[in-house]
Amino acid sequence: NPCNFNYHPVLMTAAFPFFATVAALLWRVQHLFPSRTTVKVLHALCSVASFICAMVGAYAVNKFHADRGFADNYSLHSWIGICALILLGMQVAQGLFIYALPFAPRGLVS
């Protein structure tokens, strides 16, 4: 389906400029929320939403390329995108592992 490619810019825009920015800015406006736990949960949800949007956006463009017989990862744009996805995935995994799961040392979690 040629419309698959159109999901890529929409989802990447939702992932990086929107969800990732909102996740970061939540800490700047945490005084507006009733508790720190609320901010942590919203931050985690925005971070995970950013990662999901980025992964689905990358899948959409790769599926489009596969369906059309185009080569993948031939430009600097695609390699920077792969690096950004890896870094975002590592950041989300680290955040979930340290702050959301119960086996992180108490001194690490504030």
Features:
3 helices; 110 residues; 73% helix; mainly alpha
In the predicted model, the low-confidence regions spanning at least 5 consecutive residues are: none
Using only CA atoms, what is the Rg? 17 Å
Mean pLDDT over the full residue set: 90
% residues in beta strands: under 5%
What global shape is seen? elongated
Helix count? 3
H-E string: HHH
What this model shows, in words?
- With 110 residues, the chain is mainly alpha-helical.
- The chain has 3 helices and no strands.
- Helix 1 (4-25) packs antiparallel against helix 2 (36-68).
- The chain is elongated and about 50 Å long.
Summarize the structure.
By secondary structure, the protein is mostly helical. Helices cover 73% and strands 0% of the residues.
Question: Topology, please?
Answer:
Elements: H1 4-25, H2 36-68, H3 76-100
Helix pairs in contact: 1-2, 2-3
